[in-house]
Amino acid sequence: MRQAPLVYLDTQDFIRFRDNRNDASVAAQYAELKSLRRSGRIRLGYSALNIWEFITPARKAEFVQDRTERGELVVDLCGLNAFPFYSDLATGAHYPNNGLWMPAGLLSKAQDFDKILKEKIKDFLAAKGIAANRDFRRKLKSPSFLRSLRHEFSGHEDSSLPVSSDINPMIGLIIGKYFEGYLLGKISSRMLNRKLVGWASDPRSFGSLWHEFGGGVSALDEFVYKYLIKIIEIIEEVILRLDEISEIKKKLQGERSKIMADMVRAGFDRRLAKSLLPRMPVVEDDFQFAPGEFNLDAFGDGRLEHVVHYANKRIARVGRTQRSDVVDMMHMLYAYDCDYFRCDKAMFNLFADFPPFSGKLVASIPDLLDRIR
After folding, report:
1. Strands 340-342 vs 43-45: parallel, antiparallel or unpaired
2. Which of 303, 283, 280, 281 has the alpha carbon at shortest distance from 292?
3. What CA dihedral angle connects 11, 303, 201 and 4, to 10 degrees?
4. pLDDT of 281-300, one tens digit each?
C-alpha cells in the first residue's frame, strides 16, 4: 500500500501560522493541513532547522512561554514526527524517527556524562596537584577556580565528550551552564539526561531548555552558519575570479579593436588588418562546479548535488548569494525524500530545472493544498 505523501514545510509556514493565526484564511489553511495529517492523507514533520529558526533564543525569561507555545504549535500541526538530524541521514535514519529531531548520539550517550565527567575531573585535579578531598571542596568556593573548571570541561573541540563531533559544540554550551551546579552537587547527570531526552524528541521542551542552558546563543549561528558558510565564500570567490577574467577579456578585445581601427585609418584593408593581428588568447570563463564538488560524507551520498546546482546557477549570475542560502541548502537535504517540499519562490525558480526535485517543490501553502486535494 502506497504511503501518504510526505510533506516538508518551510519555516516561514510555521511563522506565518503563528503570527497570522487571527487571519481567517491562514487559520483555515492551518486547520486543513492539520486535518489532512490527522486523517492520514499526508505526513508532516519538523526538522532541527525548522525548530532552530522558529523557536529562536528567548533573551529574557518572560519570552520563554512564547517559545514554548511555538513548540506546541509545531507538535499540534505535525504530531511528534521528525525528520532526522541532518548528520543522521547518512546512517539511514528516516521520518518519523520517533520524533527525534536532534542527533541520535545525544540520547544514546547522555547517560555516560556522569562517569566521563568524574574521570575527567579526577585527571584534571591530578594534573594540577590537587587532592580530590577537603582541599578540592574548599577550592570550589573560589569563583576563579570554578571558571577554570568550566573552561576546562566545556571546550567545543574536546573529542572525549561522549557524543559524536557534530554535536560536541552543543554539549559544550550545555555543560558550560550545568557544570558548576554539577560540581556543587546541585544538579545530577540523571536530571540533565531527562531534560535532554525531552528536548531532543519534543519541540515543546526546546525553548525553555535552550533558555536555561544555551546562553542566548543562536543555534543556527552555532551549528550551521559557522561550519557551512565556507560554501558561500567559495562560490563568491569563484564569481570574483570570473569577473576578473571577464574584465581581462574586455580589455584585450578593446585594445585589439583600437589597433585594428588605427591600421584601417593608416590605409590597411580591414581583412588584411584583421589577418595581421594575433588571435585573441583563449581565456576560460565557463567554469562550473563538478558533481561531487561538495560531497560531504556526513549527509550521505548524493545529498549535496543540489548545492552544486546552486553554485553553478550563482556563478552563471542567476540571482545573488546570500548568507541565508546556507540554511536553504541544508533544508533541501530533506527534499530528496519528500513528495512535496515547501520553499520560497526564489528557491522554487532556482531549482525548477534540477531533476531530483522535479515535481516536488511547492512555492506556497495554497499551491500545496491544491496539489494534495
Report:
1. unpaired
2. 303
3. 80
4. 665 556 677 665 665 555 77
